[in-house]
């Protein structure tokens, strides 16, 4: 997604699925039990036009999930992805809702804006908490009334847009401190989905690593290496603060530097973990899979 904000429209993603350069996955790798449950939740929410709010740390796959929701909804219009943190301050309203010719200096022609471009489809607003407050109220009004008034226009235009929003911050807290519109929060909260950080769905780590390895090997026309047992252990123990995106970058890097048929720990380019962090990784894994086993482990440790 373009992050420039010189006042030009930032909309770029409508057909990113078709870009040969984009790794944007078609498949959602969801193997861990928590991910499977999430997948079921999303499958229930996807049909129809209810708004959805996806809460999750950076790089967890929120946009991929939003695309999946759009695909499964069978809405005929486009999936339009916009990062609210990249919105140009001066032209935010015109970017979002469009404008008429001559609405402001330099606006020679009219534009539908992101909202209008998503007509009949899905508008994905990433980091919705970064949307300026006055626009939050206008967004809610447009969603509820199903019409928008372009900047400079006298009459509203009918629109049918499904909103899927994402946030990495706690919007309830933002409402509490007056930074987020309470009614917009209620509107969004009806279809709320929590996307857990990667470290809390450890059984996704290796399948995702294999998946990215396969995709990058194919794209770069390289032979597919194996991930050595030691590298697998490192991948599983690492806490992935940058989540799936960080894993993707690490695997991509490893493929480029491994020059052989096996990925070793040193190819992953991850900071070395202190002993306690490795232990924490193993404990997280055990806790996710088998609480009884974890309790037994603690009992053994405490018994000396
Ligand atoms: N479950 C998954 N299966 C396959 N690929 C995934 C999965 N989750 C994330 N990815 C990939 O990881 C990368 C990051 O995902 P995405 O951009 O959707 O995250 P995000 O949460 O929207 O990030 P940000 O918070 O920075 O906006 C993308 O390349 C995406 O295709």
TrEMBL record:
Q: Which domain of life is it from?
A: Bacteria
Q: Where is the Sigma-54 factor interaction domain?
A: 28-256
**Signal peptide span:** none
Instruction: Name the UniProt key words of this record, in alphabetical order.
Output: ATP-binding, DNA-binding, Nucleotide-binding, Transcription, Transcription regulation
> Can you supply a Gene Ontology BP term from the record?
regulation of DNA-templated transcription
What the entry lists under Pfam families is as follows: AAA_lid_14 (PF25601), Sigma54_activat (PF00158)
- What does the record give under GO molecular function? ATP binding; DNA binding
Q: Which InterPro entries match?
A: AAA+_ATPase (IPR003593), AAA_lid_NorR (IPR058031), P-loop_NTPase (IPR027417), Sigma_54_int (IPR002078), Sigma_54_int_dom_ATP-bd_1 (IPR025662), Sigma_54_int_dom_ATP-bd_2 (IPR025943)
- Membrane spanning segments where? none
Question: PANTHER family annotated for this entry?
Answer: TRANSCRIPTIONAL REGULATORY PROTEIN, TRANSCRIPTIONAL REGULATORY PROTEIN FLGR
| UniProt protein name | Sigma-54 factor interaction domain-containing protein
Native organism: Metapseudomonas resinovorans NBRC 106553
């Amino acid at each position: 997604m373009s992050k420039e904000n010189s006042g030009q429209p930032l909309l770029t993603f409508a057909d990113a699925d078709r870009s040969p350069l984009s790794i944007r996955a078609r498949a959602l790798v969801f193997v861990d039990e928590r991910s499977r449950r999430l997948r079921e939740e999303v499958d229930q929410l996807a049909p129809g036009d209810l708004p959805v709010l996806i809460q999750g740390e950076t790089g967890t796959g929120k946009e991929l999930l939003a695309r999946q929701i759009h695909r499964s909804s069978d809405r005929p219009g486009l999936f339009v992805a916009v990062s609210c943190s990249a919105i140009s301050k001066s032209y935010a309203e015109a970017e979002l809702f469009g404008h008429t010719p001559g609405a402001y200096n330099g606006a020679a022609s009219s534009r539908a804006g992101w909202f209008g471009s998503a007509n009949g489809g899905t508008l994905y607003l990433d980091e919705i908490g970064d949307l300026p407050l006055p626009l939050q109220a206008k967004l809610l009004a447009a969603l509820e009334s199903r019409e928008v008034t372009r900047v400079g226009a006298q009459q509203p235009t009918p629109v049918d847009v499904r909103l899927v929003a994402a946030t990495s911050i706690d919007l309830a807290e933002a409402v509490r401190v007056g930074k987020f519109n309470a009614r917009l929060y209620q509107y969004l909260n009806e279809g709320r989905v929590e996307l857990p950080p990667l470290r809390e769905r450890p059984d996704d780590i290796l399948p995702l690593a294999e998946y990215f390895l396969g995709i990058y090997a194919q794209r770069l026309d390289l032979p597919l290496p194996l991930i050595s047992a030691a590298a697998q252990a490192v991948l599983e123990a690492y806490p992935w603060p940058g989540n799936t995106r960080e894993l993707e970058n690490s695997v991509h890097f490893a493929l480029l530097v491994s020059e052989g048929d096996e990925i070793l720990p040193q190819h992953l380019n991850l900071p070395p973990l202190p002993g306690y962090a490795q232990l924490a990784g193993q404990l997280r894994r055990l806790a996710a899979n088998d609480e009884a086993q974890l309790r037994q482990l603690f009992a053994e440790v405490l018994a000396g």
